């Protein structure tokens, strides 16, 4: 039930309407998103593709409440996030969004355990409960035996798995991944995609992922292309979409 025509039936987890984003650079205006529509249901896995500079990161940042649109609406589980105050949006983000970045963005002076625990420090969980959640998340990504390692003691693929554990530890409503395999060799990229696939298909996570890699995109239920500021379905790299 992923749709890009603005005609979703209102039950979608993520509902984007007429989303516009313009950047001002000096006297130049860059109109990145131009009336974009999107509906994504719970448990779906969507891949976004498109050339460099087409607005993929801009879109993901807007969906995650890291940035505000010029106009338009984004509703997630019924919450209109484009009209929230900065404080409310920060709390919303902590509760609902798990981010996964190309360069992992782990804190170098914290262990894997401590990195994964970070989002839980914003919750009311006790220390013992936090430990349980962190151990579960690290076991889910296959790193139960690396809890006390620092990022520099891990491979790129392992660092990304720690980042994925951090994204899922607080049971986010949806996961946003910006080129999660972009800095990995083919084998590690395959392992990361297998893990993300499992989170969707075995654990019911909702995943919105930007990627350049057709091999990564073909795991998604739907491949959407950013083209002139809007999303279009299917095409190159698609997983059998019309
Ligand atoms: N903060 C910003 N200020 C000005 N222009 C920006 C900013 N962020 C992105 N852009 C411009 O918006 C366009 C889309 O960028 P981006 O979303 O990063 O594309 P992608 O992730 O598809 O490569 C590019 O032309 C980029 O230069
Ligand atoms: Mg980008």
Strand portion, in percent? 25-35%
Report the CATH superfamily: P-loop containing nucleotide triphosphate hydrolases
The name of the CATH architecture is 3-Layer(aba) Sandwich
Q: Describe the strand arrangement of the main beta sheet, using strand numbers.
A: 6-7-8-3-9-10
Question: Which spans have pLDDT < 50 for at least 5 consecutive residues?
Answer: 236-242
The assigned structural class equals alpha/beta
Largest sheet: 6 strands, mixed
What is the tally of beta strands?
Answer: 10
Structural descriptors:
alpha/beta; Rossmann fold; 10 strands; binds adenosine-5'-diphosphate; binds magnesium ion
Can you describe what's shown?
The protein is an alpha/beta fold and 242 residues long. The protein has a single domain, classed as P-loop containing nucleotide triphosphate hydrolases (Rossmann fold). The chain has seven helices and ten strands. It has helices at 56-63, 86-96, 112-117, 127-140, 156-168, 186-201, 214-217, and strands spanning 14-25, 28-40, 45-49, 71-76, 79-80, 97-100, 174-178, 207-210, 222-227, 230-233. It has a six-stranded mixed beta sheet, with helices on both faces. The chain has a four-stranded antiparallel beta sheet with strand order 2-1-4-5, covered by helices on one side. β9 (222-227) and β10 (230-233) form a beta hairpin. α4 (127-140) crosses α5 and α5 (156-168) packs parallel to α6 (186-201). The longest helix has 16 residues, at 186-201. The radius of gyration is 18 Å and the shape is globular. 40% of the residues are buried. The model is unreliable at 236-242 (pLDDT under 50). The protein binds adenosine-5'-diphosphate (ADP) and magnesium ion. Residues 23, 25, 30, 32, 50, 52-58 line the site of adenosine-5'-diphosphate (ADP).
């Amino acid at each position: 039930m992923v749709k890009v025509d603005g005609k979703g039936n209102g039950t979608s987890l993520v509902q984007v309407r007429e989303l516009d984003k313009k950047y001002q650079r000096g006297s130049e205006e860059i109109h990145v998103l131009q009336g974009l529509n999107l509906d994504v249901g719970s448990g779906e896995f969507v891949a976004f593709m498109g050339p460099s500079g087409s607005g993929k990161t801009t879109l993901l940042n807007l969906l995650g409440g890291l940035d505000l649109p010029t106009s338009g609406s984004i509703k997630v589980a019924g919450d209109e996030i484009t009209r929230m105050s900065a404080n409310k949006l920060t709390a919303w983000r902590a509760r609902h969004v798990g981010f996964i970045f190309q360069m992992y963005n782990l804190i170098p002076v914290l262990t894997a355990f401590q990195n994964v625990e970070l989002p839980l420090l914003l919750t009311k969980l006790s220390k013992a409960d936090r430990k349980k959640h962190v151990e579960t998340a690290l076991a889910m990504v296959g790193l139960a035996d690396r809890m006390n390692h620092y990022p520099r003691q891990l491979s790129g693929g392992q660092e990304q798995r720690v980042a994925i554990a951090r994204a899922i530890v607080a049971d986010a409503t949806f996961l946003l991944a910006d080129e999660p395999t972009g800095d990995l060799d083919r084998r590690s990229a395959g392992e990361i995609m297998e893990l993300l696939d499992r989170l969707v298909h075995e654990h019911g996570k909702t995943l919105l992922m930007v990627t350049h890699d057709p091999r990564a995109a073909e795991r998604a239920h739907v491949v959407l292309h950013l083209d002139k500021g809007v999303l279009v379905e299917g095409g190159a790299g698609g997983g059998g979409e019309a």
